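Pasting as-is:
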Amino acid sequence: MRPTLLLALPLLSCSHAATVNVYLAGGQSNATGTWASSIESTLQASPGANQIEVVHIAHSGSPMWQWTWGGVRRDFYNADLAAIQAKVSEIEDNGDTAVFSGIFWFQGEGDTGAPSTIPLYESRFQDMLSFYQQDLGLAALPNFALAIIDANPDPFYDNPANLGATREAVDQMRTALANLGNLSNGSAVDTRGLTRADGWHLVPNHQLLLGQSMAHTFNANFLVPEPSTMLLSFVSLGLLAHRRR
C-alpha cells in the first residue's frame, strides 16, 4: 500500500484550497531540466492526479557523499531540502495544502571514479531518504524512482582515461542502483540502450523519454495521489523498467 506522505502544514479553510503533490527531481548533470519537465508533464497527465509541482535541482559531477556522508547531512542535501521547503512555503502562502509525494533521482556517475566508495552508496542513499522523512515530517520513507546509470558503449569509452571510470565500476554502480530500486518504496528504470552524446550524458530526446518512463514506472508502483486510487499501467517506451518485487 502506498503511504500517504503529508507535510506538517496547517489546514486552511479556503474555498479554493487545493492539494498539491510535490516531488523532487534531482541528481547530477544527467538530471536535466528536460528530464525533470518530462516527469512533471507526465505526472500532470495522470488520471485522477492532484495538482503537481516538481522541484528540479541538479549538482553536476557530484558523488553521493556530497549529499550524505557518515550519517550526516551534506551541502547538496541541504540545498535540495531548502528548494523543497521553498516550494512548500509558496504553496502554503497560496492557501493550498502540500503533500510531498516522492523523489526522482538520476545520479551515480560521479561515484564510479572512486570504486572503493560504491559499496557505501546504498546506505548513503537510504540515509538521504531518512533525512527527508525526518526533516519534512513524513509518516514514512518517501517513495522514489531512480535511473540506473550506464556509459556510452562506444569502444572509445572503454579506456578509463576517456570515461573517467572503468566498465567494472560502472557495472558495480548499476548493481547498487538496481538493489535500491527493488526496495519496497523504490522503483527504477534502466538507461542502458539510450543514446549518449558523450561518455555519460543522454541526448535531449532520450532525456525526455526517460522522464516519461520514470513517471509511468513510479505511478505503476505507487498509487496515484488521492483522491484517485487507480493504478496506472506501465507504458513501455523501449526501456527496461525494474519494478519492485
